[in-house]
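Subject line: Sequence and fold of a protein, written as structure tokens
Area: Proteins and the way their chains fold up in space.
Start of record: The labelled sequence and token lines come straight after this line.
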Amino acid sequence: MFEIIKKDLDAALRKDPAATSKWQVFFTYSGFRAILRYRIAHWLYNKGCKRIANYISMRARNRFAIDIHPAAQISEGFFIDHGVGVVIGETTIIGKDCMLFQGVTLGGTGKDTGKRHPTLGDHVMVSAGATILGPVTVGDGCKIGASSVVLMDVPPHCTVVGVPGRIVRIKGEKPQELDHQLPDPILEELRRLNKRISSLEDKLKIHSCKYSIANQVNGVPILTSEEIEESMQDKEE
């Protein structure tokens, strides 16, 4: 158990650029301290001391606002950044070197029995406010976008965003840690439709709206020559 705790400490230093020393993480990081209490409670739970384990888990929940069931199976190198509001259910399985942010829920749907909580593979990152429900499996190297809701299995090395969660990116490699530049599938679809409408307007010689997404580059509207002349006339008046 002590070797696993050491790897958890190393993971916090590796994944959080604000961490400057092991002492800082050990004494001031609520996420690490909640994990530390979970490790002790999990060891006692496996030894048959379930009442004591549940009591330790309750105290950790009241103190750090992180609810980890002592029966959950969490591998080494686990880190909770900005640890608050995290819920990890009883039959949850988390692989090596995983990272959760604040507000993450690994819970059940209330309709399943037995294995009723998620399984995360190795090197999985779940961003702030994301929810994974039911006995679903999230493959190795996946990233779950902030506030996403995952209700189905996710293949390895995928990026999932949205409600319900949609796979928007598939890579055959481990994702970079702390990379939150995730695509928005709804916005991309709107841009595609706007470009199509703009193309049809050009063919029909219809004046398009200058505020259209299709007429923007990096969020800045592109004005036509007619619109520039109109704006110049407005200034002269």
